[in-house]
Amino acid sequence: MAKEKKKKKKKIDQKIESGQTELSNEKKENEKKKDVISSKNPRIVEQKTGKTRILHLSSLQDLIQDYTKDLEPEDYLFPSTKGNHLKVNTVYQMFQKVAKLLGRDDIGTHTLRKTFGYHYYKKTKDVATLMEIFGHSSEKITKRYIGINEDEISETLLKFRLGF
Fold first, then answer.
1. Which residues contact residue 55 at a Cβ distance below 8 angstroms, ignoring those fewer than 6 apart?
2. How far is CA 114 from CA 31, 67, 148, in A?
3. How is the chain split into domains, by residue range?
4. How confident is the model at residue 21 (pLDDT cuts 50, 70, 90)?
């Protein structure tokens, strides 16, 4: 049992020290309270890319403190009913149930991430920083990912008039 606990802790230490909405759900599924209260800007190592990322949680501290106030440091932030943490597939199934109730078929686990990106870009127009946040290799990929290209084309054509 101690070996299993050690293995789990090592995996968590390598993968997480916190989470935020710019990350996909795979990176938040097995975080514990201690992982998000240890630092306002913790670092994580992404499973998919192996890159180390800084998470900027300063603006979320009130929400984090409120959400975690009744949790022990070793408690999962998103516990399952089986006593472990929610799995990515479970989160996906939850999203699908909500989408069905809403009569939508365009909601998935990346919806929050894309929505964050879309609104961040609309508010700041800073695609370079957003590209870094998402870990994309080009601004073009980031704009396509959040669906900005179509919006910008429509917007500019709507306002465009030839000299008459």
1. 17, 18, 19, 20, 23, 41, 42, 43, 44
2. 21, 24, 11
3. 2-102, 111-159
4. very low
